[in-house]
Amino acid sequence: MSTAIIPGIFSALLALGLMGTVPEPAPGVAGAATVQLQVFAHAAVDGPTLQLARTTVSKLLESARIGAEWRDCGTVASTCHESSEPVVVIVLLLPVAKTTEEDVSGEVVQDQSTRVPSVLVYLPTLADRVRTIGQSAAGRSNPALAPLQLGHLVGLAIAHEVGHVFGLPHTSSGVMKARLATDDLIALHAARLTFTPKDTATMRQALVSRTRLGAPDTR
């Protein structure tokens, strides 16, 4: 993961043909702070994958008592410019691997014109990982890994990068591990992979602080 300031991120990335359709977002977690995820998904991402990604990221953020409002933004940035939520994170699901580091599945950047953080998720890298796991000895022999799909890893990547947005470093366990092992993916399937209590406290403090500052001007 790396964080960068880049000008006009939409003008460069929307030309890739970002789009997607998912159901209306479910209500946020009761008593939890909420972050709005404005998601731009490439045309190659099908509805079931997006739905699974949405469910996965929602459950992972719930473990930190943070609600996720998934907002489908299609291909037109203006459809998601206005928001009633004070904390917005843009999510771009990209059809390319990172040029300089092909093993990187996600990172955080910030558009200097809006100051809104953006999470970039590199779909081919995650798809390769799903295939590698499925073809591995562990994947063939462990029934708990058989249901693993691209949507699981997309949701996990988004949750991990949202953790970075709110100041979390990599950790030795939980969602913020730099590289998840087979046991972690089994824990993900069993809903046992979570943010640690320390991560939860840090994220919620950062989210509350941003909420108090009010909604950013994304127009």
In short:
By secondary structure, this protein is of the alpha/beta class. The protein has helices at 9-13, 47-62, 123-135, 137-141, 150-165, 182-189, 197-213; strands at 3-6, 33-41, 66-72, 88-94, 106-111, 117-122. It has one domain (3-208): Collagenase (Catalytic Domain), CATH 3.40.390.
What does the secondary structure layout of this molecule look like, with pairings?
Layout: E1 3-6, H1 9-13, E2 33-41, H2 47-62, E3 66-72, E4 88-94, E5 106-111, E6 117-122, H3 123-135, H4 137-141, H5 150-165, H6 182-189, H7 197-213
Parallel strand pairs: 1-5, 2-3, 2-4, 4-6
Antiparallel strand pairs: 5-6
Number of domains: 1
What's the CATH topology label?
Collagenase (Catalytic Domain)
How many helices in DSSP terms?
7
Any idea what the CATH superfamily is called? Collagenase (Catalytic Domain)
Please name the CATH architecture. Answer: 3-Layer(aba) Sandwich
Give the percentage of residues in beta strands: 15-25%
Q: What percentage of residues falls in helices of 4 or more residues?
A: 25-40%
